[in-house]
Amino acid sequence: MKPFNPDAPPPPAGSPSDLLRVAVTFPRAGGQGGPVKFGARLSTASAERFVPDPLNVDVAIGELQKEGFAVSSRGRLAVSMRCTRAQYEKVFGTRLTVFDSPSPESAQVQKFFFPGRGARAAPEARIATLIDDAYIQWPHIYMAAPKKKAKAMAGGVGGGPALGYHYLSAPKGVQKLLNVAAVHKAKITGKGIRVAMVDSGFDQRHAWFKKFRAQSGVVLAPGASGKLTDTGGHGTGESANIFSVAPGVTFIGVKVDNDSAPGEGASILEGFQEALRHHPQVISISMGYDLRAAGTNKPDNKLPNSLVPLEAEIQAAIAAGIVVVFSAGNGHYAFPGQMPNVISAGGVYVDEKSAMQASNYASAFASAIYKGRSVPDFCGLVGMMPDATYIRLPIPKGCDIDRDMAAADRTKPNDGWGVFSGTSAAAPQIAGLCALLLQKNPGLSPQEIKAVLRRSARDVSVGRASAASDPKQLGGVKASAGADGATGAGLVDAAAAIKQV
Amino acid sequence: MAWVRLQLLMRPEHRTQPDVEAAAKAAAALGMAPSGQGQTTFSARVSAPDFQRLFGRSASEAATLTVPKELARYVESITVAPRHEYF
């Protein structure tokens, strides 16, 4: 199957792709039956017991590769592979027939190959002993391509109506400044990488999202309500940053807000725990806490007990190989953005002449809790004071941001667009970039990804970070040549980073 | 009903999935409603009256609470989840 391309025409009806997506499962460690042949549904409690012996998986993959199968992604329980119709029929001793896709109006393809009803299956003996099962994957129907190409946006960097000031559109403006286009041309779009975003909600009914055919789903954290709604608009808008950078990701939106009873919504810890249930490779969170010593402009030097559980859970997730990205804060002494092992996303502003400067809206500070930790690590695109009106993002019509930001961003209060980009925008941009790196090299550890992004970032030597996160009251940490406190290593660069993995 | 959001941190030696589940079960028996779990923690919600009954005080975000003896084997600390901000 071709990688995601929003401009590609749909395949002609009656000619299913000859390239098959196959999910392969394996016997349990110890040789017992695997998850497909298990006679009941797996629960989160039992799934761990079906993790196969990785050595046996390697042997099975090797045998299938000899037959021409190629690995497209590898999970703990299953491996996704690609092969041709002929290769599948040979290895599994069966005949495939053409089926119509369910929900063809919103399906990724109109027809696909699958074993016919009652078709015989006689897999080669050496393969049969190594695997549990191998299922051809049906085409997904999430986020189908619109029948008409989305109306081209005009104006602004990368398109958009004139608003009387310099701003970026998503996806094109963001893609241009983060140097993403060349990576997408190389067919790296984050495909197959699971990215969870924990935020207010994700109302993806906006026409903007329909152009992305990536897999996307929303789950509710405890106490949250309304899978399809986002009365605040924050999560919906910020998620567009992920799709701008990595349109092929498998997106898992974890909603924490309760639309009708705000106090009942989920905590960040509950949202994080819910995200873990969906086995993400990357978690992006544009929320946090301002740890400011009471009555001062100085950062707290002790983590409150109430945040120790979240700290422990994040550490465990990173130790398990999950890349965790947090916003550095908008003048906040942000936690968890100051934890040493998370990726802390700060802000750089690029003006209409392509000149870069530290965003004076974004936090930059030395943590007083984690000695030696300087926030941020590096930066995404963030606006400037007073309102950070920089990236035009799709939001639910009439949501809080649509109404509250209308005067500042010069959009209409019920038009479904908002121009807003604090470090909430930087975190999902960088999370998307992490997904691109993981598609290119799934074996990268969180530490390796951070190192690559740091090495490949563009140095920013002008400007100051937010004055509100400067305990010395000198107007914000100053950027200078080389790595500095204001922007860390500088603005991330997708093309430069991808060359290093 | 107003709920208090609790965060329960497991003792280091009990940070395993079976023990997290056992602790959540013990918490449920005390009247807490487990709402999520991870590798080192679990979350639970409790009504204001049950909070008062369990901890002998009204909910306060700054407070570190006394771990009930039924949970002490597994749980290192219990705190009330603070309110977060969007950046």
Query: How is the main sheet of chain A built?
Result: 8 strands, mixed
| Count of separate structural domains of chain A | 2
The percent of residues in helical segments of chain B reads 10-25%
* CATH class identity of the largest domain in chain A: Alpha Beta
What about the largest sheet of chain B?
A: 5 strands, antiparallel
- Per DSSP, the total helix count of chain B is 2
Q: Give the rounded overall mean pLDDT of chain B.
A: 94
Q: Which pair of protein chains has the largest interface, and what are the residue counts?
A: A-B, 47 and 31 residues
Low-confidence stretches of chain B: none
Based on helices, strands and strand pairing, what is the structural class of chain A? Answer: alpha/beta
Using brief descriptors, characterize the structure shown.
heterodimer; A: alpha/beta; Rossmann fold; 2 domains; 8-stranded mixed beta sheet; 4-stranded antiparallel beta sheet; 19% strand; disordered N terminus; B: 87 residues; alpha+beta; 2 helices; 24% helix; globular
List the helices and strands and how they pair.
The complex is a heterodimer of chains A (501) and B (87).
Chain A: E1 19-25, H1 44-47, H2 54-66, E2 70-74, E3 78-84, H3 85-92, E4 96-100, E5 111-115, H4 125-128, E6 133-136, E7 168-169, H5 172-177, H6 181-185, E8 194-199, H7 207-210, E9 216-220, H8 234-245, E10 250-255, H9 268-276, E11 282-285, E12 287-290, H10 308-319, E13 323-327, E14 334-335, E15 343-350, E16 356-358, E17 365-366, E18 374-375, E19 378-381, E20 391-394, H11 400-404, H12 406-409, E21 417-419, H13 423-440, H14 446-456, H15 494-498
Parallel strand pairs in A: 7-20, 8-10, 8-11, 9-10, 11-13, 13-15, 15-19
Antiparallel strand pairs in A: 1-3, 1-6, 2-3, 4-5, 12-14, 15-16, 17-18, 20-21
Helix pairs in contact in A: 8-13, 9-10
Chain B: E1 3-10, H1 17-29, E2 33-37, E3 41-47, H2 48-55, E4 64-65, E5 75-80, E6 85-86
